[in-house]
C-alpha cells in the first residue's frame, strides 16, 4: 500500500463536511463528501494518521468491491469472487459485520453468514485450510453492506469503531458518542485555546473531547487498530504506528484554559469523574454538582459553553410543558456576557423556548434522533437579536423525535 488507495471514513449524518475538513488537515487527498461519510485517497501512513488522529470518523473502510447480488446464492457468489487470500490466511481470525438497506433479505445475520461461508470456502480452496471466526476480537473485520441488490464489501482498518477511545469506563443513560462530541466541538471552532463549560455534562464526553483537543492528544493513542494484525500490512503498520504514537506523545501540550463540567445528578458526575480519570485528564477538568438554570460563577471572563440538554424523550422530563419551561430558564442562565453558547438539541421546542436568535445552525443525527446544533454569539455582543420579549412558554404537543432506519455504527 505504498501507492494511494481509495478509502471511506464513516461519520454521523450531518457531520460529513466536518470530517472532510479534518481529513484534509490530516493529509488525505481527493476528498469527496458522501452520505454518512467521506471518500478519500491515502497511502498506508496517511491512512494510519487518520486512524490515530481523526476525532470525527467512526470507521475507516478499505472498499474491496460492490456487486449486484440476488438471493442467497448471489450473495455467496459475489463474496466468493473477491481474492480473500490477499487479505487473510488460515491463521487469521475474522468476523463479518453486515447491514441492510431496502433489501429482499430481512436478517443482517443471514447476509453475514453467506459472506462468511464464501470467505471460508475460498481460503480453504486456495490455502488448503480455513480461517477461524472470532466475533469478539477478530484480526480482520469485514464490513458487508447490502443496499437493495448491491453488496458492498470492505475491510475495516480500525476494528473497534473509533468512538471507542478507551476512556468510557462508566456508562450513563444518554451519552453522546465521542466522535459526535468531537464533531460538535469542531463545528463550534473549538481549538483548545479558550475556557470551556458544559453545564449539563452527564458522563463528560464533551469535556473529555475538549480536553484531548486542548492537550493536542491523538484520540486513538490508547487503543490499537485492526490493520496492525493484517497479514500483509500488519508489520509495516505497527512500525509506522510506533513512530506516530511516539511523535504524538512528544508533541502534547499543557492545557492552560479552564474546562468545567456541571451536572445536577451525582451519579452522572461520578461517571464523568471516572471517565475523566481514565482519559488522564483529572488535572485539566473540574467537575461540580450544580443546576444549569442557576449557573455558578464561570471560571474565565469568556469562552465556550457547549452542551446537550435533556431532550425529554430518553431521560424522563415531566412532559413537554416542563421541558419548555426548563429551556426558557436555560436561555436566561446560559447567556453570559463574553461566552458563546452552542447547544445540540433533539427537542424541536428548544429553539423558541431558549428565546435567542442563533447565529449558526445545522441538522445532525445523534444515533437515531434528529437533532439541531445551534450556535449563539456571546450575550451583550450587540450582534444577536432576542426573539421578542421573554415570556414563560405555553404548552405544546409532545415531542416525537424522527427515527432513522439505519444504524450509525
Ligand atoms: C443528554 S445528558 C448529557 C449527556 C452528556 N453530553 C454525555 O455525553 O454524557 C443531559 C444531562 O443533563 C443533566 N441535567 C438535567 N437537568 C439539569 C440541570 N437543571 N442542571 C444540571 N444538569 C442537568 C442530566 O443529569 C444529564 O446528565
TrEMBL record:
<dbReference type="InterPro" id="IPR000241">
    <property type="entry name" value="RlmKL-like_Mtase"/>
</dbReference>
<keyword id="KW-0489">Methyltransferase</keyword>
<dbReference type="Pfam" id="PF01170">
    <property type="entry name" value="UPF0020"/>
</dbReference>
<dbReference type="GO" id="GO:0070043">
    <property type="term" value="F:rRNA (guanine-N7-)-methyltransferase activity"/>
</dbReference>
<keyword id="KW-0808">Transferase</keyword>
<dbReference type="InterPro" id="IPR002052">
    <property type="entry name" value="DNA_methylase_N6_adenine_CS"/>
</dbReference>
<dbReference type="Pfam" id="PF02926">
    <property type="entry name" value="THUMP"/>
</dbReference>
<keyword id="KW-0694">RNA-binding</keyword>
<dbReference type="InterPro" id="IPR029063">
    <property type="entry name" value="SAM-dependent_MTases_sf"/>
</dbReference>
<feature type="domain" description="THUMP">
    <location>
        <begin position="46"/>
        <end position="157"/>
    </location>
</feature>
<dbReference type="Pfam" id="PF22020">
    <property type="entry name" value="RlmL_1st"/>
</dbReference>
<dbReference type="GO" id="GO:0003723">
    <property type="term" value="F:RNA binding"/>
</dbReference>
<feature type="region of interest" description="Disordered">
    <location>
        <begin position="381"/>
        <end position="409"/>
    </location>
</feature>
<dbReference type="GO" id="GO:0008990">
    <property type="term" value="F:rRNA (guanine-N2-)-methyltransferase activity"/>
</dbReference>
<dbReference type="InterPro" id="IPR004114">
    <property type="entry name" value="THUMP_dom"/>
</dbReference>
<protein>
    <submittedName>
        <fullName>RNA methyltransferase</fullName>
    </submittedName>
</protein>
<dbReference type="InterPro" id="IPR054170">
    <property type="entry name" value="RlmL_1st"/>
</dbReference>
<dbReference type="InterPro" id="IPR053943">
    <property type="entry name" value="RlmKL-like_Mtase_CS"/>
</dbReference>
Amino acid at each position: 500500500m505504498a501507492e494511494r488507495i481509495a478509502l471511506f471514513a464513516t461519520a454521523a449524518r450531518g457531520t460529513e463536511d466536518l470530517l472532510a475538513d479534518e481529513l484534509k488537515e490530516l493529509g488525505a487527498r481527493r476528498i469527496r463528501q458522501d452520505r454518512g461519510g467521506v471518500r478519500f485517497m491515502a497511502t498506508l501512513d496517511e491512512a494510519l494518521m487518520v486512524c490515530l488522529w481523526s476525532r470525527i470518523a467512526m470507521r475507516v473502510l478499505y472498499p474491496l468491491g460492490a456487486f449486484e447480488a440476488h438471493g442467497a446464492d448471489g450473495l455467496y457468489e459475489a463474496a466468493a469472487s473477491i481474492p480473500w487470500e490477499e487479505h487473510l490466511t488460515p491463521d487469521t481470525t475474522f468476523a463479518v459485520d453486515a447491514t441492510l438497506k431496502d433489501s429482499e433479505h430481512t436478517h443482517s445475520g443471514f447476509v453475514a453468514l453467506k459472506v462468511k461461508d464464501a470467505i471460508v470456502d475460498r481460503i480453504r480452496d486456495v490455502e488448503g485450510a480455513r480461517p477461524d471466526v472470532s466475533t469478539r476480537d477478530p484480526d480482520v473485520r469485514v464490513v458487508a453492506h447490502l443496499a437493495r441488490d448491491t453488496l458492498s464489501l470492505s475491510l475495516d482498518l480500525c476494528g473497534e469503531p473509533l468512538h471507542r477511545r478507551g476512556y468510557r469506563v462508566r456508562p450513563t443513560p444518554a451519552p453522546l458518542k465521542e466522535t459526535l462530541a468531537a464533531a460538535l466541538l469542531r463545528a463550534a471552532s473549538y481549538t483548545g485555546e479558550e475556557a470551556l463549560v458544559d453545564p449539563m455534562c452527564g458522563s463528560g464526553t464533551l469535556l473529555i473531547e475538549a480536553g484531548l483537543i486542548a492537550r493536542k492528544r491523538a484520540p486513538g493513542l490508547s487503543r490499537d487498530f485492526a490493520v496492525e494484525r493484517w497479514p500483509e500490512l500488519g508489520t509495516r503498520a505497527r512500525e509506522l504506528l510506533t513512530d506516530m504514537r511516539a511523535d504524538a506523545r512528544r508533541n502534547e501540550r499543557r492545557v492552560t484554559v479552564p474546562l468545567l463540567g456541571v451536572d445536577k445528578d451525582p451519579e452522572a458526575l461520578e461517571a464523568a469523574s471516572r471517565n475523566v480519570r481514565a482519559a488522564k485528564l483529572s488535572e485539566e477538568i473540574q467537575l461540580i454538582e450544580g443546576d444549569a438554570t442557576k449557573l455558578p460563577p464561570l471560571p474565565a471572563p469568556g469562552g465556550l459553553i457547549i452542551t446537550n440538554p435533556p431532550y425529554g424523550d430518553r431521560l424522563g422530563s415531566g412532559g413537554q410543558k416542563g421541558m419548555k419551561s426548563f429551556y426558557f430558564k436555560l436561555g436566561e442562565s446560559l447567556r453570559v456576557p463574553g461566552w458563546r453558547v452552542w447547544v445540540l438539541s433533539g427537542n424541536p421546542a428548544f429553539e423558541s423556548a431558549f428565546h435567542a436568535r442563533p447565529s449558526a445552525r445545522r441538522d445532525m443525527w445523534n444515533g437515531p434522533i434528529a437533532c439541531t446544533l445551534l450556535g449563539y454569539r456571546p450575550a451583550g455582543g450587540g450582534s444577536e437579536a432576542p426573539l421578542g420579549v421573554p415570556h414563560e412558554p405555553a404548552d405544546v404537543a409532545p415531542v416525537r423525535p424522527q427515527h432513522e432506519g439505519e444504524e450509525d455504527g
